[in-house]
Design brief:
By secondary structure, the chain is mainly alpha-helical. Helices cover about 50% and strands about 0% of the residues. Strands 1-2 form a two-stranded antiparallel sheet.
């Protein structure tokens, strides 16, 4: 069976095994993006993946959002086509857009990856500096270039100053002292983990959402009800590892489960680059699209973690192993039940992965004015030989953004991580959040 959980060694903190999927990702020069906004999204993805930071999709979403906030504001301080994220310097129409974008992204990445080195992540500074040198080398040495560099530095500094107070590093997010529940339905540490992950992430200031609780859903299904029993028995039957626990999954369903194990920022930014390239967006359009996408992903995680640690609902692996304690006659315990992959040390409800998929699909649908756009994408969490970096990489094809979001959500049931209630609620939650952001921030300036 494919093992999605390897542990790289980082000396200053223990790496939660569930987030570790250290597969090689190589992005050859021939795949450099058509414009600087898209190219620096790809540089961000590669640096995050190669360092292992992509295995922490929650703080990773913050990194993407910071990079693209700086890129968006740098560009729109040259030509004010879309409203700025932060009040910025006087418009500089004679600055080089390429120099401004590259510098804004570079300065955010250097600052953040310098900090990550201190937490034991391998340095990505050489790759970032190489990408920056290539960007600047393509721009003529004129006063416009120097003005663009200065502008990019100013916007990056503004974003870094704004987010300096975030407690985001993985070491700080691991909480072994978190008070576990003891009653049926209450979250307790999942097998393989003696900590809760990011219980205070819901307190992080959102990027665009006015209030992380703005669209918070109601509670999960009551344990004694038929709906809960249906969800319980569904994930029990289909979400097992196929070794310790039998599973009724088909081969395609197993592929779906593993395909979407990949962190949401990594996958949905890849999808965004794919669709953007097919639609031949302009530099300004890409800057706005990537900023909107990553604000929604970052705020989706903040909102869902606020919900998760508000309801503190137990995971299927706990619920199934303790099924005889929940007071429901239609749920039967299996003390040895084992999911397909190690369950993340986070409460079940709602599904953050599903929130991310719903949010991403909504941003893309709102931006392009339609849900019905076809695309294909690969994954880094498929077995070696079929992942993104392989000659025979497996791609899955979708005819709409919502189809991908639904499959992304379904994968969390197939892998044994979530009840269906958490998935369907999460997708709706993400869509509401993202649509609000699309209609309230980075709007056309005129």
């Amino acid at each position: 069976m494919f093992l999605a959980n390897q542990k790289p060694t980082h000396p200053k903190w223990r790496f939660p095994a569930v987030f570790a999927t250290m597969l090689c990702l190589v992005l050859p020069a021939s795949r450099l993006a058509a414009d600087e906004a898209t190219r620096w999204n790809e540089v961000t993805a590669k640096a995050s993946f190669d360092s292992g930071f992509a295995n922490y999709p929650i703080p990773d979403s913050r990194l993407y959002a910071m990079v693209h906030a700086a890129v968006h504001d740098a560009l729109n301080s040259i030509d004010h086509r879309y409203k700025l994220y932060l009040p910025g310097p006087t418009v500089t129409p004679d600055a080089s857009p390429q120099a401004a974008v590259a510098t804004a992204a570079h300065d955010v990445l250097v600052d953040q990856f310098n900090q990550l080195i201190g937490f034991g992540f391998p340095s990505q500074l050489s790759a970032i500096e190489s990408a920056y040198a290539a960007s600047l080398a393509a721009i003529p040495d004129t006063p416009a270039k120097m003005k663009g560099i200065a502008l990019g530095k100013a916007t990056a500094m503004a974003i870094l100053k704004l987010r300096a107070g975030d407690v985001w590093n993985p070491a700080a997010l691991v909480d072994p002292s978190y008070k576990q529940g003891t009653l049926p339905g209450e979250y307790r540490f999942t097998p393989g983990s003696d900590f809760a992950f990011a219980p205070k992430w819901g307190e992080v200031t959102p990027f665009a959402l006015s209030d992380s609780e703005r669209f918070q859903p109601g509670p999960p299904f009551p344990l004694a009800g038929k709906q809960y029993a249906q969800d319980f028995n569904e994930v029990k039957a289909i979400g097992g590892d196929g070794i310790t626990t039998p599973s009724s999954r088909t081969p395609d369903q197993t592929q779906i489960a593993l395909f979407w194990l990949e962190g949401s920022p990594l996958q949905w930014n890849r999808i965004t680059r794919t669709v953007s390239a097919a639609r031949r967006l302009s530099l300004w359009e890409n800057a706005r699209l990537f900023a909107l996408m990553n604000f929604a992903l970052a705020d989706g995680y903040i909102a869902t973690f606020d919900t998760k640690y508000h309801y503190k609902f137990w995971r299927p692996v706990t619920a199934i192993r303790e099924g005889n304690s929940d007071g429901n006659p239609d749920t039967v315990a299996d003390p040895a039940w084992t999911p397909l992959a190690i369950t993340p040390p986070i409460p079940d409800y709602d599904s953050g992965h599903s929130v991310e998929g719903g949010a991403a699909a909504q941003i893309l649908e709102d931006f392009f004015g339609t849900d019905s756009i076809s695309f294909s994408t690969c994954s880094t969490t498929l077995p070696v030989g079929s992942n993104c970096n392989d000659a025979n990489a497996v791609s899955r094809h979708y005819t709409s953004f919502s189809q991908a979001a639904e499959e992304n959500g379904e994968s969390r049931i197939l892998v044994g991580f979530h009840f269906r209630d958490a998935v369907t609620t999460g997708i709706k939650y993400g869509r509401k959040l993202a649509h609000w952001e699309f209609t309230h921030v980075l709007r056309p300036a005129h």
